[in-house]
Amino acid sequence: MPSMPSGSTQTDPSDAFAGAYAQGSPEPVQLLTPEGERVEHPLFSSDLTPEQLRGLHRDMVLTRRLDTEATALQRHGELGLWAQSLGQEAAQVGAARATRPQDFVFPTYREHGVAWCMGVDPVELLGLFRGTDHGSWDTERTRMALYTIIIGAQTLHAVGYGMGLQRDGVVGTGDPDRDAAVLAHFGDGASSQGDVNEALVFAASYHAPVVFLCTNNQWAISEPTERQSRVPLYQRAWGFGLPGVRVDGNDVVAVHAVVSAALQRAREGQGPVLVEAFTYRMGAHTTTDDPTRYRLSADLESWKLKDPILRLEAFLRRNGHVDEAYLTALTQEADALGERLREGCRSLPDPDPLSMFDHVYAEQTPELAAQRAAYAAYAGGFEEEQ
């Protein structure tokens, strides 16, 4: 896994979010224009090196290849479903690379770029959508919880985890290698769920060290954001008593800077923050969805011009940080990843049907044991007939 970039250079994250709170500007924080030109922001900045920027670019390219291959595998019947992340790579990669080894991440079901950055094997990720397991990665090693299919539930899990960090004494100690925070991902659609609102209430009440990252891709399946909220989503934070800020979700440098500052603020014991990453879902909600039925093709074409990968690549090219040899090698790496995903997906072993009884309870109940035995006898009957 590539090394993590260092945090962005906002020296006082508390001042930054206090300033963002006071400004209340709907204009998102941006450090790279869609044309790939570097711009400054009065509250947030970044000192990422060329090597670190190339790392972010690589992460996004390989995340997109993972997404492309998984979509193709589903179309060929190898996956039951796939939730596309096309166009949202910057929001995911920039946020994940802002974490430190002691932080923990709670994803939804679309954070493929986060999973990549946290060290989850992409083949393990495919197993969840192939139906061979319910998520098999080592959450302690990756510092990322399993994907959450229930909309918004992971935000409550994140707040509970953050409150646990407080009680473990690893928040606000002043030790940068010890103080920890939590990053909770959810979408604009989930912002209407009761679980998310309850999580914001508890996080604010208990000053929990949680950064809520709302990836606003503007469509909750087929429902546009304006039908869910009368105000920009980041402004909803104020009603719960915590600061909110909107960042350009297609600008990986800006996302990294804002989330770095928010996580540092949380680690220092200054409480939760809501970050709205404003982006666009260029693909379908899932592979069962047809977005042409509810959105305009012109909107999609305009957002293609803001592509997060091409934006960073333009900056790297303009400043001589990449050359054709580098880009060719990256393409070859992506091709190798694609081949590994195809082979790995088809090689995933089918689970033992009886394994569905193994983790229902910490200790198996007599009723469950009876059900297991009955199913084993039923399944064994088919084997005898053969």
* Residue windows where pLDDT falls under 50 for at least 5 positions: none
Strand content: 5-15%
Supply the number of structural domains: 2
CATH superfamily label of the largest domain = Thiamin diphosphate (ThDP)-binding fold, Pyr/PP domains
CA-atom Rg in angstroms: 22 Å
Query: Biggest β-sheet: count, sense, barrel?
Result: 5 strands, parallel
Classification by helices and strands:
alpha/beta
Spatial strand sequence of the major β-sheet: 1-2-3-7-6
Please report the total strand number as a whole number: 7
Query: Which whole number gives the mean pLDDT?
Result: 93
CATH architect. name of the largest domain: 3-Layer(aba) Sandwich
Query: Helix count?
Result: 14
- The separation of the N and C termini measures 47 Å
In short:
The protein has 386 residues and is an alpha/beta fold. The chain has 14 helices and 7 strands.
Give an overview of the whole structure:
With 386 residues, the protein is of the alpha/beta class. It has 2 domains: 13-347, Rossmann fold, CATH 3.40.50; 353-385. It is 45% helix and 8% strand. The chain contains 14 helices and 7 strands. Strands 1-2-3-7-6 form a 5-stranded parallel β-sheet, sandwiched between helices. Strands 4-5 form a two-stranded antiparallel ribbon. The radius of gyration is 22 Å and the shape is globular.
